[in-house]
Amino acid sequence: MRALFPGSFDPFHNGHLEVVERARRLFDDVVVAVLVNPHKDPPLFSAAEREQMIAECLARFDNVEIVSMTTLVVEVARQVGADVIVKGLRAVTDFENELQMAQMNQQLSGIETLMLPTGSSYSFISSRLVREVARYGGDVSAFVPDSVAVRMKERLGA
Question: What CATH number has the domain bearing residue 66?
Fold first, then answer.
């Protein structure tokens, strides 16, 4: 079975990494899809930069690939032959939003969504908070993979 793990990943953090590590044990292959969302604030990193950082973080895994997406998640799932969409959950607030998306995606395509709760050591990490801490000069190295921390330091001086 093949799973699709979509997200904006701006930046890719340790909570995302944990979801990928767990999903790759459950599925034969995992496709990480970098979302280009024109409705969100301008990204800190371009889609190409995010893809490259994620590829560096996941290079040790032979059953993971990375793609960019500018269309509906269900269209990407069809394009890559995914059997299921995987989403990480940190809190109840994530569940409410992800449940609606999962139901819409199921209605649009028949594809199911598997929601994986993150481990408690990652439940407070979000890309938005990591960006905010970094923008104010805080050290984010405990929250992101090393290669991402380097890129954030280069970009923001954090």
Answer: 3.40.50.620
